[in-house]
Design brief:
alpha/beta; disordered N terminus; 8 strands; about 40% helix; binds pyridoxal-5'-phosphate; 8-stranded parallel sheet; 9 helices
Length: about 220
């Protein structure tokens, strides 16, 4: 999928290379995905001045970010992996944006966590654009109903949509669908595109791309 990168390249060099490849497109913000990366890689990216990061598990994220959360200014963390309702409060406490809202039960748990902690966060709804049975995300046909319940009943601040296209299909049509759905709901943000397809995502109007291997090399 994603190209292997020479180990001697620094985070900054890789970041510049990625940006150059999206030069002609919209300029999405780059979420550096630090799941299963060593702490040294995370510290290096912080030292290089990067401030926007993604994690896909709450517990791992707590370990990775506990110290930086207190000391690094302007740090922004996005949760990009599935969230269980019993972790909703931990997630609300740690993350600025939770990208994986995909069911009413979770919206209720997040609203309760916001009420309890007094913190308001932003949310993206994850859409299962490929309608894959095993995959997280709301079915495109059920999106409008979930959006209405999350924003009107639960009073969550939903500002965007997120998707992960099926691995065995071209990503373009999935990105196009997500963009269409967001436009219909008047949502500004589109989190789409990973190391293998971020240029395509940028062409379709991504406002965030989520990059792990393109910035850090392989994961453990
Ligand atoms: C791991 C992960 C990424 C980053 O994947 P790469 O292919 O390494 O860029 C992006 N989005 C989600 C949801 C992920 O879990």
């Amino acid at each position: 999928m994603s190209e292997a990168l020479p180990l001697d390249e620094t985070f900054s060099q890789r970041l510049s290379a990625v940006k150059a490849k999206m030069e002609k497109e919209t300029h999405p913000e780059i979420i550096a995905v630090t799941k299963r990366q060593p702490q040294a890689a995370i510290d290096g990216a912080i030292a290089a001045g990067h401030r926007l990061f993604g994690e896909n598990r709450v517990q791992e994220a707590q370990k990775h970010w506990e110290l930086h959360r207190k000391s690094v200014e302007n740090l922004k963390l996005h949760l990009i992996g599935p969230l269980q309702t019993n972790k909703a409060q931990d997630a609300v406490e740690l993350f600025d944006v939770i990208e994986t809202l995909d069911r009413l039960k979770l919206a209720k748990a997040l609203a309760a966590a916001e009420a309890k902690t007094g913190v308001k966060r932003d949310y993206f709804i994850q859409v299962n654009t490929g309608e894959e049975p095993q995959k997280a995300g709301v079915d495109p046909n059920d999106l409008a109903e979930l959006f209405k319940a999350a924003t009107e009943e639960q009073q969550l601040s939903v500002t965007g949509l997120m998707c992960i296209p099926p691995v065995d299909e071209p990503a373009g049509p999935h990105f196009a669908l997500l963009a269409k759905l967001a436009k219909r709901l008047g949502l500004r943000h589109l989190s789409m595109g990973m190391s293998g397809d971020y240029q395509t995502a940028a062409k379709f109007g991504a406002t965030y791309v989520r990059l792990g291997t393109a910035l850090f090399g392989g994961r453990s």
